[in-house]
């Protein structure tokens, strides 16, 4: 019976974890957002959503191959995970998109946090075996603050709209109030 419980616990964890990066997946993200919304309603705790997209990621796969692309995604996930502490949460949304939920934060501080992440990623590089030049990555980030009463989809749509404004320039951060 203990073995069965342990197997079930492991299966549950695997179902909520992105197999490539080891961070929570989209399914887990939905649960995290629901938890944050509930805290916002019951305890009036604010939170912001950051939608992060790797700039020109298709070029990485085209130039270096999918194995390097996978390594890049794991590298970015590790960097983002290191930036999130405490109640902040990270998840891989899909492809080359990640989401961070920042708990108990103001909109302006969320923009600063996003800018710090953007700068941190832009300053670092990956050395690719067999290639002389290191790989430099940049990200575009959209930021939105949860508004009491809205759905997960409404929050995501606002953050995604800010992301698309950021992607128009690349390597930049845009908040929902900067559109």
Automatic annotation (TrEMBL):
<dbReference type="GO" id="GO:0052621">
    <property type="term" value="F:diguanylate cyclase activity"/>
</dbReference>
<dbReference type="Pfam" id="PF00990">
    <property type="entry name" value="GGDEF"/>
</dbReference>
<keyword id="KW-0808">Transferase</keyword>
<dbReference type="GO" id="GO:0016301">
    <property type="term" value="F:kinase activity"/>
</dbReference>
<dbReference type="InterPro" id="IPR043128">
    <property type="entry name" value="Rev_trsase/Diguanyl_cyclase"/>
</dbReference>
<dbReference type="InterPro" id="IPR029787">
    <property type="entry name" value="Nucleotide_cyclase"/>
</dbReference>
<dbReference type="InterPro" id="IPR050469">
    <property type="entry name" value="Diguanylate_Cyclase"/>
</dbReference>
<dbReference type="InterPro" id="IPR000160">
    <property type="entry name" value="GGDEF_dom"/>
</dbReference>
<protein>
    <recommendedName>
        <fullName>diguanylate cyclase</fullName>
        <ecNumber>2.7.7.65</ecNumber>
    </recommendedName>
</protein>
<keyword id="KW-0418">Kinase</keyword>
<feature type="domain" description="GGDEF">
    <location>
        <begin position="45"/>
        <end position="179"/>
    </location>
</feature>
